[in-house]
Specification:
By secondary structure, the protein is mainly α. The protein has two domains: 6-77, Ribonuclease H-like superfamily/Ribonuclease H (Nucleotidyltransferase, domain 5, 2-Layer Sandwich), CATH 3.30.420; 79-119, no CATH class. The protein has five helices and two strands, in the order H-E-H-H-E-H-H. The protein has a two-stranded parallel sheet with strand order 1-2. The chain is globular and about 40 Å long. It starts with 8 loop residues before the first helix and ends with a helix. Pfam families: RVT_3. Residues 7-90 form the RNase H type-1 domain. InterPro entries: RNase_H-like_dom_plant, RNase_H-like_EbsB-rel, RNaseH-like_sf, RNaseH_domain, RNaseH_sf. This is RNase H type-1 domain-containing protein.
Length: 119
């Protein structure tokens, strides 16, 4: 993932989820579905227990931001079911600053997203 200074994939997934939630707030969404391919992160977000892991501050921040939505769902999607996200992440690594695709993506990514939805 493209987060400078984050070498651990577990932390990177949590940070990516946190950024997705923040981005959805900035865009003014009222209802969101966040799909993550880290089952551990999903379990921590969906748990009512206090988190005591290394990603505890990130999980707490995400949970606090959930109050900004009428509905928010965190769902696990295995790598096989989110190829479009992985392609976008690889493309994003080519840039020195974060990039966001809103409503429009390349044709190849659109095709992958359609394929992901059919799984």
């Amino acid at each position: 993932m493209g987060f400078p200074g984050i070498a651990d994939a577990f932390i990177a997934e949590a940070v990516a989820c946190e950024k997705a939630v923040s981005f959805a707030i900035e865009l003014g969404f009222h209802s969101v579905l966040i799909e993550v391919d880290s089952l551990t992160v999903i379990k921590k977000l969906n748990s009512t227990l206090a988190d005591k892991s290394i990603i505890s501050p990130i999980i707490c921040d995400i949970r606090a931001k959930c109050a900004s939505f009428e509905a928010i769902t965190f769902s696990f999607v295995g790598r096989r079911g989110n190829e479009a996200a992985h392609v976008l992440a690889r493309v994003g690594l080519q840039y020195s600053e974060p990039r966001y695709w809103i409503e429009v993506a390349s044709t190849s990514v659109e095709r992958l997203a359609q394929h992901d939805r059919s799984l």
